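ugh ok fine here u go
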Amino acid sequence: MLSQPSTAASAAVKARTVAAALDAGVRRDVLAVAAHEVGHGLAWAHAGFAAGPARVETGLFGGPCGASCKHGASGRLNESNVVGFLIGCAAGRAGQHLFTARYLGGRDVGATGDDAARDRGDFDYSERYYRTGLSWAAAQRHATALLRPRLARVERLAVRLAVTGRLSRTDFR
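structure:
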């Protein structure tokens, strides 16, 4: 006989807002990491790349243990679109910062380790190759300006990613 999902699990699946997700037991750090990945996806899609899928995995004790968002730039990066790619690299951090400031009381938790360092490494490598003159700080400012008016969408997608663990490419269009 199949068991019924727990009430908390059912509530989490139905959650559409950060408050509902937190009430259903979704962890703050998982939501923050999800917002980080959504920030990348929305910025890369805005720049014309086929962003997604995105994923967030949780470990044995429920915390985030892996996350990614595909950028769709492989083999397509050139002088005309590299600035959009670079802004997308910085948009993870920008999206996470905006999200935690608005929805998690300013307590910034989540992607601050290897995944965030990989974002900066991708940025630095691509910027050195194309020599755009765009600094990391400037890319973060552009990403923040891009994501701020889309914060409600960041919330919806981050909650869905935190709950389901996956977003498809179509979610970023």
